[in-house]
């Protein structure tokens, strides 16, 4: 690990709301990490895996629930205090939280990606967009009971994963770290340190990797770990994506198969996968693997259904676009209208980029898209629930954790240090950016033309 990666000028973001934030920067050099893409391989039961083993042989299994640690392994687990950190997006718990939550989201340089010379404007732009967008977002959260259910569901998933690990003879503390709302990743990391965890598995609750989700959360984590001498030495394994795991694919297929049975003519139903979109530039200019992983994921689920004799037609579309740029196509709303026009009468919506119910399933799909579909001529509408606490899914996540444990490595090498020179030049740069940033932000906010341009595109 090079010293430059450590001394890249971490400063708190300008934070007019006073919420705890940290800056992550996609251009910054990556640290060496034990990254673990959870892939599907033939079943092989792990025999006495030891955490001292550096190279990890991935051992996956065809049926969730098979994996457990034998006695030899258990004794080596006993040497470590294992932590599992679930990373998630977070959501406003009350309507008053909506604007500051949106501020945190848009202040993330992995969500609004400004060219380097303009990055100092991030805070001002986030403030502007969050204020303009808040009324529309509030309507959405009001329609689902006044806040996001994400914290409660993620806490329940954490508890279920802890119990599933326990059932496999692995004792672990499970933490929740949210990117944009409480409990923030920073809080979870403090607790991990307090609890003296000696081996950590990081499990983002996004099946597919995107720069805007897993990428953003992992960069926050890297920033926190490299600044802290204790954490820097804790072996960490990061499970970056897990959409291709048998347990996940089978669990999704189970849910779809079950829901199809609620239609009077299940064979006629169009299976409509609706994924959260990302701007096209992420995929085309920044190499975001999200779209490719999403397509592979759908193929795996459909193959599994086919192997069970379920031969329905299916389609993938992208929902929830925000702002004036091009997002991944086709767009969910446009496809629904086209399907209706083309005579599709029965449709089963399958949210596929997220494993909890949230505003985009409960409001956008269940209310907005359902209404649009019915208006467009679709007569029978159904929706597959999010995986949530589905036992086969939770068991598979526990297996993914166990499989990744031996590959954990410290995030920062012991020789890495922070140079004082670069610290002070960073401080000067920061003051200059703040000064010019404030002047520009002031001009931007005063300009009625800018305000209307943003409002028309964002609301
Ligand atoms: C895989 C999932 C997600 C991706 C990819 C993603 C990218 C992304 N999102 C925004 C903007 C917003 N997202 C919002 C809410 C939200 N986003 C996700 C998941 C992904 N986002 C979830 C699960 C949620 C809901 C959280 C909850 O409270 O239930 C919001 C706020 C809601 C709203 O106003 O619509 C915004 C805004 C961008 C710009 C982006 C990629 C660049
Ligand atoms: Fe989002």
UniProtKB/TrEMBL annotation:
One of its GO terms (biological process) is heme biosynthetic process. InterPro entries: Ferrochelatase, Ferrochelatase_AS, Ferrochelatase_C, Ferrochelatase_N. Residues 1-22 are annotated as: Disordered. Its main location: plastid. Its EC number is 4.98.1.1. It is a peripheral membrane protein. The keyword Transmembrane helix applies. It is found in: Plastid, Chloroplast membrane; Plastid, Chloroplast thylakoid membrane. CDD domains: Ferrochelatase_C, Ferrochelatase_N. The keyword Membrane applies. It is an enzyme of class 4 (lyase). It catalyses: heme b + 2 H(+) = protoporphyrin IX + Fe(2+). It comes from the Eukaryota. Catalyzes the ferrous insertion into protoporphyrin IX. HAMAP family: Ferrochelatase. Belongs to the ferrochelatase family. This is Ferrochelatase.
